[in-house]
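Hi R.,

Here's the input for the guanosine-5'-diphosphate complex you asked about:
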Amino acid sequence: GFKCGIVGLPNVGKSTLFNALTATAAAEAANFPFCTIEPNVGRVGVPDPRLDMIAKIGGSAKIVPTQLEFVDIAGLVRGASKGEGLGNQFLANIRETDAIIKVVRCFIDENVTHVEGDVDPIRDAETIETELMLADMESLERRVTSLGKKAKGGDKDSKMQLDLVERALKVLEQGKPARTMEVSEDEAKSFQMLQLLTAKPILFVCNVEEEAAAEGNALSAKVAEMATAQGARSVVISAKIEEEVSQLDSEEEKQEFLETLGLEETGLARVIREGYALLGLITFFTVGPKEARAWTVHKGAKAPQAAGAIHSDFERGFIKAETIAYTDFVELGGEQACKEAGKMRQEGRDYLVHDGDLMLFRFNV
Ligand code: GDP
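And here is the predicted structure with guanosine-5'-diphosphate in place:
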């Protein structure tokens, strides 16, 4: 699965947000045959109105959204990389994620202490980034030693890697995250294998007071500005509201509650969608009388890989894909009409999957 790690300083609302996510996941669990929820891992359905539309047109009995995993990564504090808590477990957890969600506190509440004394999300974001950069430097320095030996022994691959590692170190020493460094196509794979924390894409989540949930506040506006300058994105949520919504039983109650607050959807829905985009993922659909289902692949995936997302046998025995664009399916009103209008395409191994494609795979067993 695709994973987003949630990090932030203590007392910013991470657990509140994470609990709301997992409560939502638990409520949805009935829809997911293989949904397991570990204490710090929540798997949630990605909200997608297109899927509901497809199910309606296709007369599907069941709707199965695609999923995204969120991992609650506790333990980040100032000085963490100098041994004040950024333990091995923390590092192992965060290295394994595909993207990082940084929760920053933008709500003022005298009853909730801030570890740094006052509320300042920009400083907090910098503290987090610094700790992650220091952790990256440490792991790179360890590699320099071992790679240096192999490179001296004449190993070509080690030489290339050593050069990459040394360049990454230089970038970090200048106070810049690893994601800003230039990496050639040949190096891309090695770079990825370094699993640098500051190379991962980031999303800022601004936790604001309930009253500011719709528009954000002055602090979240500053974070948004900073995010834009870094080529990142930010989302405003109120963890408190998310917690309350997640405890309501029915969809109707949730909608009603959101409406009274002037909100169109939950902040979680936005976080999930942004997380999805952050990971560079796209969705394709399968539809039939039994179920309409959404599936996830990386942008750039070809038809056989999409088949493999459903079952490895589909990829191995791939013959062709019958494909309908989402807009054709909706405009013409279903598969049969698309067939008749010549809008159902036969595609081969090289077909680049588009976001929103409806796909049916033909394969040998
Ligand atoms: P974590 O340490 O980052 O996981 O933070 P928690 O989720 O445990 O929250 C720390 C405290 O802040 C708890 O007492 C929460 O109830 C409170 N809190 C979290 N979000 C909000 C919020 O949006 N508004 C207010 N007033 N308090 C919040």
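One thing worth noting: The pocket of guanosine-5'-diphosphate is lined by residues 8, 10-16, 107, 109, 112, 207, 209, 238-240 (CB under 6 Å).

Cheers,
M.
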